[in-house]
Amino acid sequence: MAVVFKRTEGLAEIPFHYCPGCTHGIIHRLVGEVLEELGVLGDTIGVAPVGCSVLAYDYFNCDMHEAAHGRAPAVATGIKRVHPNNVVFTYQGDGDLASIGTAEIVHAAHRSENITTIFVNNAIYGMTGGQMAPTTLIGQKATTSPYGRDPKLTGQPLRIAEMLATIPGASYVERASVHNPANIRKTKKAIKKAFEYQLAGKGFSIVEVLSTCPTNWGLSPAESLKWLEENMIPYYPLGNFRTPEEVK
Ligand SMILES: Cc1ncc(C[n+]2csc(CCOP(=O)(O)OP(=O)(O)O)c2C)c(N)n1
Protein backbone atom coordinates (compact mmCIF):
# COMPACT_ATOMS: atom_id res chain seq x y z
CA MET A 1 0.00 0.00 0.00
CA ALA A 2 1.28 3.49 -0.83
CA VAL A 3 2.21 5.63 2.16
CA VAL A 4 0.37 8.93 1.77
CA PHE A 5 1.19 10.45 5.13
CA LYS A 6 3.75 9.74 7.78
CA ARG A 7 4.39 11.31 11.13
CA THR A 8 7.62 13.29 10.95
CA GLU A 9 10.71 11.82 12.60
CA GLY A 10 11.34 15.38 13.75
CA LEU A 11 8.82 15.04 16.56
CA ALA A 12 8.86 12.58 19.45
CA GLU A 13 5.84 10.30 19.84
CA ILE A 14 4.40 12.33 22.69
CA PRO A 15 0.92 13.95 22.61
CA PHE A 16 1.06 17.75 22.74
CA HIS A 17 -0.35 19.53 25.80
CA TYR A 18 -1.52 22.52 23.71
CA CYS A 19 -5.11 23.82 23.90
CA PRO A 20 -7.55 22.90 21.10
CA GLY A 21 -7.01 25.26 18.16
CA CYS A 22 -3.57 26.46 19.31
CA THR A 23 -1.20 26.49 16.34
CA HIS A 24 2.02 25.79 18.26
CA GLY A 25 1.53 22.12 17.28
CA ILE A 26 1.38 22.93 13.56
CA ILE A 27 4.53 25.04 13.79
CA HIS A 28 6.32 22.27 15.72
CA ARG A 29 5.40 19.84 12.97
CA LEU A 30 6.71 22.14 10.25
CA VAL A 31 10.03 22.58 12.04
CA GLY A 32 10.26 18.81 12.60
CA GLU A 33 9.50 18.08 8.95
CA VAL A 34 12.05 20.61 7.69
CA LEU A 35 14.82 19.26 9.95
CA GLU A 36 13.99 15.73 8.81
CA GLU A 37 13.93 16.70 5.11
CA LEU A 38 17.25 18.54 5.41
CA GLY A 39 18.72 15.43 7.06
CA VAL A 40 20.00 17.42 10.03
CA LEU A 41 17.92 16.06 12.91
CA GLY A 42 20.96 14.35 14.42
CA ASP A 43 23.01 17.55 14.18
CA THR A 44 20.44 20.02 15.48
CA ILE A 45 20.29 21.69 18.87
CA GLY A 46 17.13 23.65 19.63
CA VAL A 47 16.64 26.14 22.42
CA ALA A 48 13.21 26.09 24.07
CA PRO A 49 11.66 29.24 25.54
CA VAL A 50 9.57 30.05 28.57
CA GLY A 51 5.91 30.21 27.56
CA CYS A 52 3.35 27.70 26.33
CA SER A 53 6.07 26.01 24.26
CA VAL A 54 8.32 25.53 27.28
CA LEU A 55 7.97 21.76 26.80
CA ALA A 56 9.30 21.95 23.23
CA TYR A 57 12.34 20.07 24.55
CA ASP A 58 10.11 17.03 24.99
CA TYR A 59 8.51 17.32 21.56
CA PHE A 60 11.39 17.93 19.14
CA ASN A 61 13.34 14.82 18.24
CA CYS A 62 16.72 16.54 18.34
CA ASP A 63 18.95 17.78 21.12
CA MET A 64 17.25 20.57 23.07
CA HIS A 65 18.30 23.05 25.70
CA GLU A 66 16.07 25.21 27.92
CA ALA A 67 16.72 28.93 28.34
CA ALA A 68 15.50 31.47 30.88
CA HIS A 69 12.62 33.68 29.70
CA GLY A 70 13.70 35.62 26.59
CA ARG A 71 17.29 34.46 26.72
CA ALA A 72 17.15 31.76 24.03
CA PRO A 73 19.16 33.81 21.46
CA ALA A 74 21.98 34.29 23.99
CA VAL A 75 22.02 30.57 24.84
CA ALA A 76 21.87 29.68 21.13
CA THR A 77 24.78 32.06 20.49
CA GLY A 78 26.94 30.20 23.00
CA ILE A 79 25.97 26.79 21.63
CA LYS A 80 26.58 27.79 17.99
CA ARG A 81 29.94 29.38 18.71
CA VAL A 82 31.14 26.26 20.52
CA HIS A 83 29.56 23.91 17.96
CA PRO A 84 29.63 25.83 14.66
CA ASN A 85 28.91 22.68 12.65
CA ASN A 86 25.64 22.01 14.42
CA VAL A 87 22.33 23.49 13.33
CA VAL A 88 21.04 25.72 16.14
CA PHE A 89 17.58 27.22 16.45
CA THR A 90 15.47 29.04 19.00
CA TYR A 91 11.70 28.66 19.27
CA GLN A 92 10.12 31.64 21.02
CA GLY A 93 6.78 33.27 21.75
CA ASP A 94 6.06 36.99 21.54
CA GLY A 95 6.17 37.54 25.30
CA ASP A 96 9.50 35.74 25.32
CA LEU A 97 11.06 37.34 22.22
CA ALA A 98 9.31 40.70 21.84
CA SER A 99 9.12 41.67 25.50
CA ILE A 100 11.51 40.26 28.09
CA GLY A 101 13.96 39.07 25.44
CA THR A 102 14.00 42.05 23.07
CA ALA A 103 17.63 42.86 23.77
CA GLU A 104 18.76 39.28 23.17
CA ILE A 105 17.08 38.95 19.78
CA VAL A 106 18.15 42.41 18.59
CA HIS A 107 21.78 41.77 19.45
CA ALA A 108 21.84 38.20 18.11
CA ALA A 109 20.59 39.67 14.81
CA HIS A 110 23.03 42.57 15.12
CA ARG A 111 25.96 40.16 15.53
CA SER A 112 24.49 38.08 12.70
CA GLU A 113 24.81 34.91 14.73
CA ASN A 114 24.46 31.98 12.34
CA ILE A 115 21.31 30.70 14.06
CA THR A 116 17.64 30.40 13.11
CA THR A 117 14.77 31.75 15.19
CA ILE A 118 11.18 30.57 14.93
CA PHE A 119 9.13 33.40 16.42
CA VAL A 120 5.54 32.48 17.28
CA ASN A 121 3.43 35.63 17.48
CA ASN A 122 -0.01 34.98 18.99
CA ALA A 123 -0.43 38.59 20.14
CA ILE A 124 -0.69 37.65 23.81
CA TYR A 125 1.07 36.06 26.78
CA GLY A 126 -0.47 32.62 26.53
CA MET A 127 1.03 30.54 29.33
CA THR A 128 0.49 33.03 32.13
CA GLY A 129 -3.18 33.63 31.38
CA GLY A 130 -3.59 36.15 28.58
CA GLN A 131 -1.76 39.34 29.60
CA MET A 132 -1.07 42.04 27.01
CA ALA A 133 2.11 41.56 24.99
CA PRO A 134 3.96 44.23 22.96
CA THR A 135 2.34 42.54 19.94
CA THR A 136 -1.26 42.76 21.25
CA LEU A 137 -3.40 44.69 18.75
CA ILE A 138 -5.01 48.06 19.46
CA GLY A 139 -8.41 47.46 21.05
CA GLN A 140 -7.62 43.80 21.73
CA LYS A 141 -8.77 42.70 25.17
CA ALA A 142 -6.28 41.04 27.49
CA THR A 143 -6.35 40.45 31.24
CA THR A 144 -4.11 43.53 31.66
CA SER A 145 -6.03 45.56 29.07
CA PRO A 146 -9.63 44.57 29.90
CA TYR A 147 -11.08 47.49 27.91
CA GLY A 148 -8.83 46.80 24.93
CA ARG A 149 -5.25 47.90 24.31
CA ASP A 150 -4.99 51.67 24.46
CA PRO A 151 -2.05 53.09 22.44
CA LYS A 152 -1.95 56.21 24.64
CA LEU A 153 -0.99 54.02 27.58
CA THR A 154 0.96 51.21 25.95
CA GLY A 155 2.09 52.35 22.50
CA GLN A 156 1.48 50.69 19.18
CA PRO A 157 1.98 46.94 18.65
CA LEU A 158 5.59 46.08 17.91
CA ARG A 159 6.34 44.79 14.41
CA ILE A 160 9.30 42.54 15.07
CA ALA A 161 9.98 41.37 11.49
CA GLU A 162 10.07 44.95 10.19
CA MET A 163 12.20 46.09 13.11
CA LEU A 164 14.76 43.29 12.75
CA ALA A 165 14.92 43.82 8.98
CA THR A 166 16.49 47.24 9.68
CA ILE A 167 19.45 45.53 11.38
CA PRO A 168 22.34 45.00 8.96
CA GLY A 169 23.17 41.55 10.38
CA ALA A 170 19.67 40.12 9.98
CA SER A 171 20.13 38.05 6.81
CA TYR A 172 16.76 36.41 6.36
CA VAL A 173 13.55 37.86 7.80
CA GLU A 174 10.13 36.58 6.83
CA ARG A 175 6.62 36.74 8.30
CA ALA A 176 4.27 33.84 7.66
CA SER A 177 1.01 32.51 9.07
CA VAL A 178 -0.60 29.13 9.72
CA HIS A 179 -4.30 30.08 9.53
CA ASN A 180 -5.04 27.92 6.45
CA PRO A 181 -3.40 25.11 4.45
CA ALA A 182 -1.97 27.41 1.74
CA ASN A 183 -0.24 29.53 4.35
CA ILE A 184 0.93 26.49 6.30
CA ARG A 185 2.74 25.39 3.12
CA LYS A 186 4.27 28.85 2.69
CA THR A 187 5.37 28.85 6.33
CA LYS A 188 7.12 25.52 5.82
CA LYS A 189 8.96 26.92 2.80
CA ALA A 190 10.06 29.94 4.84
CA ILE A 191 11.26 27.74 7.71
CA LYS A 192 13.17 25.56 5.25
CA LYS A 193 14.83 28.60 3.67
CA ALA A 194 15.83 29.91 7.08
CA PHE A 195 17.58 26.64 7.96
CA GLU A 196 19.14 26.40 4.48
CA TYR A 197 20.63 29.85 4.92
CA GLN A 198 22.06 28.78 8.27
CA LEU A 199 23.57 25.69 6.62
CA ALA A 200 25.10 27.99 3.99
CA GLY A 201 26.62 30.15 6.76
CA LYS A 202 24.59 33.23 5.89
CA GLY A 203 24.08 34.49 9.44
CA PHE A 204 20.97 35.32 11.41
CA SER A 205 17.62 34.08 10.07
CA ILE A 206 14.15 34.46 11.57
CA VAL A 207 10.64 33.41 10.59
CA GLU A 208 7.84 35.16 12.45
CA VAL A 209 4.74 32.95 12.38
CA LEU A 210 1.33 34.47 13.16
CA SER A 211 -0.38 32.06 15.50
CA THR A 212 -3.62 31.61 17.45
CA CYS A 213 -4.48 31.50 21.15
CA PRO A 214 -8.20 30.54 21.27
CA THR A 215 -8.16 30.08 25.06
CA ASN A 216 -6.90 33.58 25.86
CA TRP A 217 -8.57 35.30 22.92
CA GLY A 218 -11.89 33.87 24.19
CA LEU A 219 -12.74 32.45 20.75
CA SER A 220 -13.39 29.01 19.32
CA PRO A 221 -10.58 27.41 17.27
CA ALA A 222 -12.40 28.22 13.99
CA GLU A 223 -13.17 31.82 15.09
CA SER A 224 -9.51 32.24 16.06
CA LEU A 225 -8.28 31.40 12.55
CA LYS A 226 -10.72 33.98 11.15
CA TRP A 227 -9.69 36.56 13.75
CA LEU A 228 -6.04 36.06 12.88
CA GLU A 229 -6.73 36.53 9.17
CA GLU A 230 -8.99 39.57 9.60
CA ASN A 231 -7.14 41.36 12.39
CA MET A 232 -3.53 40.26 12.62
CA ILE A 233 -2.56 40.08 8.94
CA PRO A 234 -3.62 43.69 8.13
CA TYR A 235 -1.30 44.94 10.89
CA TYR A 236 1.37 42.26 10.49
CA PRO A 237 1.68 41.84 6.71
CA LEU A 238 3.00 38.51 5.49
CA GLY A 239 6.04 38.26 3.27
CA ASN A 240 9.77 38.53 3.02
CA PHE A 241 11.54 41.47 4.61
CA ARG A 242 15.14 40.49 3.94
CA THR A 243 17.18 37.83 2.14
CA PRO A 244 20.94 37.32 2.44
CA GLU A 245 21.36 38.46 -1.17
CA GLU A 246 20.23 41.94 -0.07
CA VAL A 247 22.74 42.08 2.79
CA LYS A 248 25.87 43.89 1.69
C1 LIG B 1 11.98 35.88 34.29
C2 LIG B 1 10.53 35.50 34.13
N1 LIG B 1 9.60 36.47 34.04
C3 LIG B 1 8.31 36.16 33.86
C4 LIG B 1 7.92 34.85 33.77
C5 LIG B 1 6.45 34.51 33.60
N2 LIG B 1 6.12 34.08 32.27
C6 LIG B 1 6.08 32.77 31.92
S1 LIG B 1 5.55 32.53 30.37
C7 LIG B 1 5.33 34.19 30.11
C8 LIG B 1 4.79 34.74 28.82
C9 LIG B 1 4.90 33.82 27.67
O1 LIG B 1 4.23 34.35 26.57
P1 LIG B 1 4.71 34.13 25.10
O2 LIG B 1 6.18 34.22 25.01
O3 LIG B 1 3.93 35.04 24.23
O4 LIG B 1 4.39 32.61 24.77
P2 LIG B 1 2.99 31.82 24.72
O5 LIG B 1 2.80 31.31 26.12
O6 LIG B 1 1.92 32.79 24.28
O7 LIG B 1 3.23 30.75 23.73
C10 LIG B 1 5.68 34.90 31.25
C11 LIG B 1 5.60 36.37 31.38
C12 LIG B 1 8.92 33.85 33.88
N3 LIG B 1 8.63 32.55 33.79
N4 LIG B 1 10.21 34.20 34.04
UniProtKB/TrEMBL annotation:
CDD domains: TPP_OGFOR (cd03375). Signal peptide: none annotated. The keyword Oxidoreductase applies. GO terms for biological process: cellular respiration. Residues 58-209 form the Thiamine pyrophosphate enzyme TPP-binding domain. InterPro entries: 2-oxoacid:Fd_oxidoreductase, THDP-binding, TPP_enzyme_TPP-bd. GO terms for molecular function: oxidoreductase activity, acting on the aldehyde or oxo group of donors, iron-sulfur protein as acceptor; thiamine pyrophosphate binding. Keywords: Oxidoreductase. SUPFAM superfamilies: Thiamin diphosphate-binding fold (THDP-binding). This is 2-oxoglutarate ferredoxin oxidoreductase subunit beta. It comes from Maledivibacter halophilus. The lineage of its organism: Bacteria, Bacillati, Bacillota, Clostridia, Peptostreptococcales.
